[in-house]
Hints:
Layout: H1 5-14, H2 21-42, H3 76-80, E1 86-87, E2 90-91
Antiparallel strand pairs: 1-2
Amino acid sequence: xxxxxxxxxxxxxxxxxxxxxxxxxxxxxxxxxxxxxxxxxxxxxxxxxxxxxxxxxxxxxxxxxxxxxxxxxxxxxxxxxxxxxxxxxxxxxxxxxxx
Length: 99
């Protein structure tokens, strides 16, 4: 499967990335290699391989998950004590993106 520069630009835009022309060409080649490898994996005969099962069974004696237990919550004031910036009872964070 051949990945086009248009497709790389589209995915970069979805991820809010600014790529140079050199990076776009590089990602075209890299993504082509990844998809070619995935296609190669599709050629492997797995008809004799049994499906895998979940290895952790919560109800089993070998289960490693702890039981959920309700605990009292702490107040907003305590939660905000170590916040670098807080106001109006909430955490304040810098703007992440402009879109």
